[in-house]
Amino acid sequence: MGLLDGKVALVTGGARGMGEAHVRLFLDEGARVVFGDVLADEGKALAEETGALFVPQDVTDPADWERAVGAAVEAHGRLDVLVNNAGILRFRRIADMTLQEYEQVIDVNLKGTWLGVKSVIEPMKAAGGGSIVNISSVEGFIGAEGMSAYAASKFGVRGVTKAAARELARFGIRVNSVHPGSIDTPMVRTPEVAAEVDGEAFFKSMVIKRFARPVEVSHVVAFLASDRASYCTGSEFTVDGGMLTGAGY
């Protein structure tokens, strides 16, 4: 028996990184998975390998949300789980960041999450309930230099999560947020981050002194998507290796 047997899940940003880990673990746990991404080649390759259904999706576009949700319902007859995973990071100090760069981060990370919540309400109501898991970050609790846009978006995801949890509980829809810390993904290995972050000092500040594997986040996401989390809503789950204990951070 899998943790997610019988569930139909939609995962955004599912072509690589944490999203890919979510897709793979959900399949292993018995879910039928549809995933979206702007990375068409990577998405098609993962779909061919795993059997999950890939849908090209820009999470800032309401029409793309309609297509992705529609594809899930058409293929599997229902939708039970949404993982709002798609996100981007632009490392820029406020003085150096353009308004266009700031708005791009807000659009993908916050607007995209809000559109996702809005888009799945009716199919989840039709299914008799569901679970929405919004991927925020430890930057949704703390601020870091060069992360103003990212932190603003991830703080915002916390607010959307709590408001949605209150609005949707009456329909049997649970909404929670997950807050990863230092995860080994392509997003955190970008040259702009590597050039600006003191890796040695950052490593010394860790409580668990290693980066997490993406699947370590996926296990928490899968729990929240499952019926074992039936009394969890509006809550915030950190997967940060103790980062928010404040030890040297």
Automatic annotation (TrEMBL):
Assigned keywords, A-Z: Oxidoreductase
Matches recorded under PROSITE patterns: ADH_SHORT (PS00061)
Transmembrane segments: none
Keyword Oxidoreductase: yes
InterPro entries: NAD(P)-bd_dom_sf (IPR036291), Sc_DH/Rdtase_CS (IPR020904), SDR_fam (IPR002347)
GO molecular function: oxidoreductase activity
Pfam family, one: adh_short_C2
NCBIfam families: PRK07231.1
The family this protein is said to belong to: Belongs to the short-chain dehydrogenases/reductases (SDR) family.
Official protein name in the record: 3-alpha-hydroxysteroid dehydrogenase
Native source organism of the sequence: Planomonospora sphaerica
